[in-house]
Amino acid sequence: MNKVLNSVLLITGLAGFVFLQTANGETLQVSVSNSEDGEPLAQAVVEVMLPPELRARFQQPTELAVDQVDKEFVPSVSIVVQGSQVSFPNSDDILHHVYSFSSAKTFDIPLYGSNENVNYSQTLDQPGVVEIGCNIHDWMLAYIYVSETTLATISNNQGLATINNLPPGDYQARVWHARLDGGPVMQNLRITTGAETEVNIALEIGRDRRLRRSPASTRSQYR
Amino acid sequence: MRVKSETIAGRHTATVMVLLLVVAAAPAVHANLFSTVMLGGGHEDNLSRGFASSDQHGSAYSTLQLRGGKLFQPGLNTSLTVSGSFGHSRYFSQKGFDSNVLGTAVSLEHKFGLGPYTPRIALALSADREDLEGAERDRSLYNLGLSLSKRFSPAWSGSVGVVSETSRGNSERHTDLSAYYSTAQPHDIFDYDNDVASASIEYSFENGNLLTASYSRSDGYVVSSAVPPVSHLISNASALAADPAFEHRRVLYLLKAETDNFSAGLNIPLGRDTSLDMQMNWYSIHGKGTGNYRNARAGVSLIHRF
Question: What number of CA atoms fall less than 13 Å from residue A55's CA on the CB side?
Answer without folding.
Answer: 14
